[in-house]
């Protein structure tokens, strides 16, 4: 890892000491602190008020037992988490992840990223994240429902439309949000629609929330292409994952004239040079909850179980699965094959070593906290509709999302220029997000 500004190094060491073994959180904190080098000199008042130390320490961390009964009658125990990281700009906002890899370090890294991402949207939302080490794979609907009900039976006391507003993430989609909201409503006896986002369209959800993260990532890339005086037309795009973010990123790429030639899941990847049939992928993943290998069984597509999706030659790569999925060798393959843009639909999918390789190879890079902010921005639009008892059309909600993504792109590009690093969207996103939160924290005093 590169060395930090001498003022920032001891702050990073405190993060290491206070959060032992939480390597993903260390990685996320280092990346932000690295970008703050020019801010320390330009805005010494942030250092004087210990804003950076305060931002690295969550306001509240909740860890709880989640007992539930499986279909065979056996009692199972999982661990639940909610890290309420920063509420300077509004109620804590950020998704819930259900995946066996979840532990405090993952939740903290995601919550930390969320603070700056949410600030970049310019909406009034703070940062938080939560989840459980529960593995939904292979579980029946009844088991998922009982788990969600038990999870919410503890979590509800920490939530509220003015306090903390979760949404989905890996393993938490519309079905899970429904069960979680049902239990919240039952316990509190309140139809408090604004307490969760990602709700179904018939009971308080917003048009475009399902599509928002993927669509937003592609709108961001579209702005990068426009700056290069080109567009998606004829471009080959590789998208990792085949979950919510990946599917809708792929859909928007196709709508804008690009061709998505590869998708994946944790079992491997598929390649179809003529373009992947997205309706078939939606049916496979959203309805049948099947494996991506099944797609290749009936089509003119190749399934690769033991390989790296980044070896597939492309113009644009969109990592949309999970953290640290694009490593040094994957980045090397993208450079070698002439890729021009990498944009993160997932949170922190690119390792620091991979990022260095991409930069050296001249690939333009969009960090997740800017490129995938469309999801949380549309969640804030859902909260806005809930508060005014209003429902917007698909077209209007998509237009709002498009405007927000253009705004985030503009903010990142302008801030990077202002701080002497034109084209460095990582620095632009980290600095712009940080300053918005830091200014609010200064105004609110020592709390
Ligand atoms: P999802 O619907 O659960 O899909 C996740 C996809 O990634 C699946 O195809 C999954 O494959 C794959 N995946 C997950 N963990 C993996 C691992 N360890 N190794 C290989 N593949 C893995 O989740 P999602 O909502 O699309 O989220 C994807 C990413 O976007 C995450 O980083 C999330 O934090 C980020 N994000 C999501 C949103 C949102 O609105 N949903 C917003 C901002 C950022 P399997 O099914 O085989 O596990």
TrEMBL record:
Q: Which domain of life is it from?
A: Bacteria
Q: Which Pfam families match?
A: ELFV_dehydrog, ELFV_dehydrog_N
* Family per similarity comment: Belongs to the Glu/Leu/Phe/Val dehydrogenases family.
Binding partners and assembly: Homohexamer.
Which UniProt key words apply to this protein?
Oxidoreductase
The protein, known as: Glutamate dehydrogenase
Q: Which residues does the UniProt record annotate as the domain Glutamate/phenylalanine/leucine/valine/L-tryptophan dehydrogenase C-terminal? A: 206-445
Organism of derivation = Mobilicoccus caccae
Keyword Oxidoreductase among UniProt keywords? yes
